[in-house]
Amino acid sequence: MRNGVDREIPEQIGTRDVRPYEGAYATVRTDRKVARHQKWSSPQDDKVLPSIEAAIEACGLSDGMTISFHHCFRNGDRVVNQVLDACARKGLKGLRIYATALFPVHEPVIEHVKSGVVARIEGSMNGPVGAFVSQGGQLAEPAVLRSHGGRWRAVEAGDVEIDVAFIAAPQADPLGDATGIRGKTPCGPIQFSAVDAQYARKTVVVTNDLQPYPVHPFEIQAAWTDYVVEVDEIGDPENIVSGTLQLTRSPTNLRIARLTAEAVVASGVFVDGFGFQGGAGGISLAVTKYLGDEMEKAGIAAGFAIGGGTKLLIDLLHRGLVRTVLEGQAFDLDAIASLREDDGHVAIDPGFYANYDSRSCATYQLDAAFLGATEVDLDFNVNVNTHSDGQLLHGIGGHQDVAAGAGMTMITVPSIRGRLPMILDRVTTVTTPGEVIDVVVTERGIAVNPRREDLKDRFEAAGLPVRTLAEIREEVGRLVRPARKPVFGEEIIAAIEWRDGTIIDVVRKVEGWA
Amino acid sequence: MRNGVDREIPEQIGTRDVRPYEGAYATVRTDRKVARHQKWSSPQDDKVLPSIEAAIEACGLSDGMTISFHHCFRNGDRVVNQVLDACARKGLKGLRIYATALFPVHEPVIEHVKSGVVARIEGSMNGPVGAFVSQGGQLAEPAVLRSHGGRWRAVEAGDVEIDVAFIAAPQADPLGDATGIRGKTPCGPIQFSAVDAQYARKTVVVTNDLQPYPVHPFEIQAAWTDYVVEVDEIGDPENIVSGTLQLTRSPTNLRIARLTAEAVVASGVFVDGFGFQGGAGGISLAVTKYLGDEMEKAGIAAGFAIGGGTKLLIDLLHRGLVRTVLEGQAFDLDAIASLREDDGHVAIDPGFYANYDSRSCATYQLDAAFLGATEVDLDFNVNVNTHSDGQLLHGIGGHQDVAAGAGMTMITVPSIRGRLPMILDRVTTVTTPGEVIDVVVTERGIAVNPRREDLKDRFEAAGLPVRTLAEIREEVGRLVRPARKPVFGEEIIAAIEWRDGTIIDVVRKVEGWA
Which of B40, B203, B352 is the closest to A218 by Cβ? Predict the structure, then answer.
């Protein structure tokens, strides 16, 4: 069948009956979420276990079950590999990994797939695991990718029932209250796992800093935690700052950032109290910086900004240019320190941030957001998951959630990357539908979705270089040769969920080249 | 049938099948909680309604439904009466009120019962409403009293399904994020309603201080809130400090407090890092003060204290004698200010505090707790609900939760009140079973539960006046005449739930006097 972004989607993917994407807000549910498990303890219960193996046993983890993780240490995480190694030693087979995201550090997952310990992966795959999955034939079921909000929603809805949640906790007490903003190796808030901890059949807190009761803030609560394991290492906080988390130095990208900031200023939303999403990519960081300068010049302040907490955003908070920072994850140590100290800096969980099945999301309050893309097409559809070669190399993150929510969603993308055109007739994979994209900013000009004539008029009045996507694509077409197109086979290696649980696209195995 | 504290309990109370109390930790559930309702919104949704009537309409509130409230303004609350008046104007009948607690200010509830607007009440009734219910024949079903933790548990378990939660919010934003620690009339954290907001079919935030998004901390979340109503008045913060929240000046009570503090010091739990519950009654405040002095003298600090946040407890925090204060409700404005300012002062909800159906409670971590009583009997059973005349005049509060959790639970009670003996053969109503009471402190001496010979030895070694309850009862019996005993009829006017949802006792209508 063809879905609402005109993609061919099968009625069944693996064992799953597919609900096709129909529109950004087409799903309205009036039923109930899945019911949480009853739990119990006596006041004398001792939850501290000597090892991850002991926790695996205590939880009754067995073949085919689902285990979950957060990614708050990103490429510095040490827990996923430790747990999978322990599962392998226990002889477990056929597990489903429900991680928020995997990174290059999780390359050992590949061996666990090959040996049968892991049979399924749902969650973002950044780098080698994604490339491996892209080869096809590896997993018992296609991978499933969800946005931050979509993952939270899927747990609450019962789409994914977690058997055991393993939660890396930079500080925890013996009852399992846990936080990511204190401890020997703080990684920022670990509330990504809050829904896992509440809905999983069993919850295990894995910490390298066990402290007396009560450890707070209670990102994870003792009420939800079945067992606590102390280990030597859970992650390397230096590695939560990945290489991409630096202000761009590329002149092209700086031009895009400058145009984006100018477009925000011209858009009509740039008034005291407005809200924006400050991303952590190189261009987004530069836009945030420029926007701060513009606010200072104009004598206004943002009512709030949602991060990706970064030093840059915290500086705006300290300068009074942003009144409140809502932070789902920390991208550097300055952001973590600020969470401990600044009243105006508040940790939020993905449910608060972006749960489609709720009465409000933080992203719905955004006036402006600037997001990246691997590709954009003439219908304003955006791809952030695959490269033009068809390889699945990135997760969705909050892309869908922010794009769907913000009053003005801007995609910042260079028109050419690695001699490949980024504005295409059709994106390789639709992550985010054009209907929720308002503006695409390239170094060659600003394209405005025809649904937003109002913005086009404002940008033109401000003297900004407004052009159509077709014009930009054509201009680029004269400069670079068209990319070799992958030829896709039938096998689906991953399903891309829209944030409401429908399928917006699938990723198929690459069979060759056109 | 007779239950685990030897009380005669019917198999059916109103329409409810009774599970009898069997023991403090007898219930172990492995099923699931009730499922929460799915909710939805578009980014453009406007939740702000012009009046409580408009919210009643928008929520589809109709005859026989259940509405809920918190009591964080205590006797200063203005929301319960406003909502019930609006329900009356709308012609609604047969409502069930599921308030955490009603106070003398809620006396107008009586008229709403008489006129049929209200048919059922579940929750604490302090004062006139309780006295009215005690007369019998007023409600369609007997009242149900639950502890703080028990009320939270009942919602999660689906024992009580709330149709519309009305939540008084000292500050809220137009999306329904709400807090009690900021605003024009702060009342302290309003997380008592967090479970209502998450599980109710519809949630309405009622505020007198609507501020721009995002209002935080998010005690109530926009994700849970269906509608927001701004009204002139929600409560009088001066009245959250009731007359009882003063250090006792009675020499008898001061002696009890002094003995209690000395017993804590002698008990073996008085070591650096211990945890205690600091109540807000006159004797408890005095014990807290004495205990602070003792800690200072001994050069130790408590790891944590659970309040009832009071100036006294905050002073201990500021003096470094308590490292962390966990606060479920604020009892004065100093406590509220401290919640905004002190990192070591953390708001907790009743689920965190005391939910039986969970993997840990804060109360389970307590080393010592000192609680009040209206009566104590020779089996160490405690009554906090009824007076010796059989009138239902008080709620349970956290009494059961703390008593069941604390390593050493001490009941502080004068042996005589108003010329009536307080140590009896049998309490009028069992609120908290003797099996979880360790020590009873009266001005005539300290009685130790025979299950705790270890404490008796320690107290005697410290030269404390250890006596049996029988001795104290007998001594008092020589000083005062026995109380006139009420003669109870058959009609049950209230059921007292143990914190696991079983029935520990019932309150019957008083028919006359012996």
Answer: B352
